[in-house]
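Hello forum,

I keep getting stuck at the same step: I have a sequence, I want structure tokens, and every attempt I make locally crashes halfway through. Rather than fight my setup again tonight, could one of you with a working pipeline run this one for me? It's a single chain of 106 residues.
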Amino acid sequence: MNYPDYRPRRLRQNDNFRRMIRETTLSVDNLIYPLFAVPGTKVKKPIVSMPGIFQLSVDHIVKETQRVKALGIPAVLLFGIPERKDEIASGAMAACANTRATAIAG
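Reply #2:
Ran it on my machine without issues. Output:
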């Protein structure tokens, strides 16, 4: 008999075998938490397409990173959201060292 008519399941008979031949394991060490930084203070705007994730101002970013660290998540990925968007993404290409993005990262 050939697959898909015949599917040998001898390696899935017990938990020990399944654990040994498992291809993927996922732990908290594999997680990266996304943070979206916006200008201002006391801003916590939900992102509709990502339930439980918010656009946060710097004051909330600090609190959120402390919460993420307490959960054991080892890394965050910080996305800066400019005050205004244009066709050349000039807000994302700020060359000044004293920008809001460097204030957040510092």
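The first strand starts at residue 32 and ends at 37. If your local run keeps crashing, start a new thread with the error log.
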